[in-house]
């Protein structure tokens, strides 16, 4: 069980780092909201990402009452 937990943590860290790199490459500024869509399939050695898109969302004003 500890081995699966460690593998999941490594996968999550890899996903996080890859997402940060993709945001940088796309030129999306810090603090902007984006919609992330991922199409994937399970493969023998994990998961294979077939398609991924990042779409900047329009900034919405937050109002406080």
Counting helices, strands and paired strands, the structural category is alpha+beta
- Rg on CA atoms, Å: 16 Å
- Helix content range of the residues, please? 25-40%
Low-confidence stretches are none
Plain-language structure description:
With 65 residues, this protein is of the alpha+beta class. The chain has one domain (2-56). It is built from 1 helix and 2 strands; from the N terminus they run αββ. It has a two-stranded antiparallel ribbon with strand order 1-2. A hairpin with a 2-residue loop joins β1 and β2 (46-56).
Note the main attributes of this structure:
single chain, 65 residues, alpha+beta, two-stranded antiparallel ribbon, 2 strands, 38% helix
Spell out the blueprint of helices and strands.
Layout: H1 2-26, E1 34-43, E2 46-56
Antiparallel strand pairs: 1-2
Concise account of the structure shown:
The protein has 65 residues and is of the alpha+beta class. The protein has one helix at residues 2-26; strands at residues 34-43, 46-56.
């Amino acid at each position: 069980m500890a081995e699966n937990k460690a593998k999941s943590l490594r996968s999550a860290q890899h996903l996080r780092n890859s997402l940060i790199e993709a945001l940088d490459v796309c030129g999306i500024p810090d603090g902007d909201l984006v919609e992330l869509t991922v199409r994937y399939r399970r493969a023998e050695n994990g998961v294979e990402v077939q398609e991924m898109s990042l779409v900047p969302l329009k900034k919405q004003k937050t109002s406080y009452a």
